[in-house]
Each structure stands twice: as structure tokens, then as C-alpha cells.
Design brief:
By secondary structure, this protein is α/β, with parallel strands linked by helices. The protein is built from 13 helices and nine strands. It has two domains: about 5-170, Rossmann fold, CATH 3.40.50; about 180-310, 3-Layer(aba) Sandwich (Rossmann fold). Helix 9 links the parallel strand 6 (about 195-200) and strand 7 (about 225-230). Helix 2 (about 10-25) packs parallel to helix 6 and helix 2 (about 10-25) packs antiparallel against helix 7 (about 160-175).
């Protein structure tokens, strides 16, 4: 097993504690103009934090929150838009492009990074910027982005500080259940080893499914896909007419599922079973949406590491991404 990635995944609870400490010391000034919409810019391991936080605050916040993983911003961005640039390295070119555009549109800007160009831009323009510890793969720094994003929204009086309390409780949950989480993760890794993973959950958990897919991609060096219930009932379910034993389906469930989604899930499992595809359920633990999500994330993080061990691949290696960046560097 790769000891470096093992250490990084093991540090997730500690990262949450450290991130909460950083948040307490962070300076987030009151907005100069009314905030009418929020854009969170980020890619990969940095971008997923924005998607998670957007889902967590959806039923509380009174302004739209949109995640952007691209080179440009929506046309509606203006002086009433808060644009948060989340780039672990501070040098993500897509995020920097969005920040430059945000400046041209006179948007309100806040940065989250470990340094790099984003830190320089924020310092030059006197934007608030939260600095987090750097030097590790961005996918292992998730705790820093989600905590800082929640804290920014809380400090601007857009959401409650209770979300940060829930993050702390989520940390306690995964620490207390570490042994059980690792056992479930190993079971999941063995279940997926020889198959193409297909991940399903309720719509509210889609950002978690994206994170899971990313972890299996990067750590496990395997392709997989995801979809949500009920949307998949209107399209992908028909695709199971061509399904077969190559696929392994994982259903992420919770005790507070919408009753009709729970029934939809039951029917879907019958359809999948008739095609001979393997099935596995993972039931969330936790009393809040955030706790349940963090529980799922921790199970998958460990499963992706165990998969890399079973498949004898290096979970740290991102040679193909490095190649892509080197080729782009020569492109003008």
C-alpha cells in the first residue's frame, strides 16, 4: 500500500480541525455592495469543494450559488456577484482566467489557495484571501476548501455558523467509526476491483458522487460513472436494457431518503439485478446532510486507496495530467 496516500487520507480529520482553526483567524470583510449571486470557481480537487458546499447550503441561502469549472464566467456576473476562486496551488489556469474576468466585471472577489498567482492577484488588488497549507495532491486537501467556503458564507451572514458545527461533528463521526469505515471501504474495493463502477444516489448527493468518481479515477486509475435518482429513471434506466455483468452498481442511501425516491431505488435495483450486475449498498451515518456526506467521502477515499493496492497501481501518480499540462504550456 502507498504509505504517502495512506497518511494523507488518515489526516482528513486532522485537516478538518486545522481548517476550522484557520477559519477562525481568517479575515473576511463585509461586502461593499449587496451580494445577489455567488460563483465558486475551481477545478478537480479544488472545484469539488464548491459543489459540495453549494449543495449543503441550498436550503438555507437566499441567493443562487453556482460552481464554475471552466475558463469563463456566466454573463450575469457583475458588481453584485461574489466570485470565490478556489485553487489549491493558486496557479490553476482555468480559475485564474475566471478571476481575471471577475476583476473586469467589478465583481467582489475572495481567494482560497496555498499561494501562487491567485495569492498575488488578491494581494495586488486588496482582496481577502485565505491561505491554506500546500504541497500535497489537491484531492487530499478537500477539508481546507470546504471549511473555508462555509466560513466565508457564514462571515458574510449568508448562512449560519451551524454548518461549521456540523463539519466538526462529521469529523468526530469518522474518527469514532474509523474501524468500521475502513472495513466497509475494503469491502467496496474488493467489490469493484474487476468491474466498471456505476454510482447512484439521491440528487442532493450528486457532488459526493462526483468526488467519488474523481477518487476512483485518480487513486484507483479506473473509469466509472454516476447518476442520480430520480433523474436516472427518465433516461439511464432504459440503458440498463443493454447492461451486463461487466458493471458493479453502488447505491449510496440514507435513512431520510424521500419516500418516493426510496421506492424508485427499490425498483431500480430489481431492474439492475435482472441484468446480472453486482450490487452493493452503502448506508450513510450521521444526523445531518453534511455528516452523511463526509461519511460517504471518507468511505470512498479509503476504498480508492485499497483499490490501488488491489490493482497494484500508484495512487499518487498523475503522469497523464502532467503530460497534458506540459503540452498546454507549448500551446499559445
Amino acid at each position: 500500500m502507498n504509505e504517502m496516500m495512506k497518511k494523507l487520507i488518515s489526516a482528513f480529520p486532522e485537516n478538518i480541525t486545522e481548517a476550522l482553526s484557520i477559519a477562525k483567524k481568517a479575515t473576511i470583510r463585509s461586502s461593499s455592495t449587496e451580494i445577489k449571486n455567488i460563483i465558486i470557481c475551481g477545478m478537480g480537487g479544488s472545484g469539488i469543494g464548491g459543489k459540495l458546499v453549494s449543495s449543503w447550503v441550498a436550503k438555507e441561502i437566499n441567493v443562487p450559488v453556482e460552481g464554475v469549472s471552466a475558463y469563463s464566467l456566466p454573463q450575469y456576473v457583475n458588481e453584485n456577484t461574489l466570485v470565490i476562486g478556489s485553487s489549491y496551488s493558486g496557479n490553476t489556469e482555468e480559475t485564474l482566467s475566471c478571476i481575471e474576468e471577475a476583476i473586469s466585471k467589478n465583481a467582489q472577489i475572495i481567494g482560497i489557495c496555498s499561494g501562487g498567482k491567485l495569492k498575488e492577484i488578491c494581494a495586488t488588488n486588496k482582496y481577502d484571501c485565505v491561505i491554506v497549507p500546500g504541497g500535497n495532491p489537491p484531492r487530499t486537501a478537500l477539508a481546507y476548501s470546504i471549511v473555508q467556503l462555509l466560513n466565508i458564507l457564514s462571515e458574510l451572514k449568508l448562512t449560519s455558523a451551524e454548518r461549521l458545527t456540523e463539519i466538526a461533528k462529521a469529523k468526530d463521526l469518522i474518527v469514532a467509526d474509523e474501524k468500521e469505515i475502513k472495513a466497509k471501504a475494503l469491502e467496496l474495493a474488493k467489490f469493484l476491483k474487476e468491474h466498471v463502477p456505476i454510482l447512484y444516489a439521491e440528487t442532493k448527493f450528486e457532488p459526493m458522487l462526483v468526488r467519488a468518481r474523481q477518487q476512483f479515477n485518480e487513486n484507483g486509475k479506473m473509469l466509472c460513472w454516476h447518476h442520480t435518482i430520480p433523474e436516472m429513471n427518465h433516461n439511464e434506466l432504459v440503458g440498463w436494457g443493454g447492461g451486463d455483468t461487466r458493471f458493479a452498481t453502488v447505491f449510496f442511501t440514507s435513512k431520510d431518503m424521500h419516500p418516493r425516491n426510496a421506492k424508485r431505488l427499490e425498483i431500480c435495483k430489481d431492474v439492475v439485478a435482472k441484468k446480472g450486475a453486482k450490487q452493493m449498498d452503502i448506508l450513510a451515518k450521521g444526523n445531518s446532510f453534511i455528516e452523511q456526506t463526509i461519511y460517504f467521502i471518507n468511505v470512498v477515499d479509503w476504498a480508492s486507496l485499497y483499490l490501488s493496492d488491489l490493482k497494484q497501481v500508484d495512487p499518487i501518480d498523475i503522469e497523464v495530467i502532467d503530460f497534458l499540462k506540459s503540452e498546454l504550456a507549448n500551446f499559445n
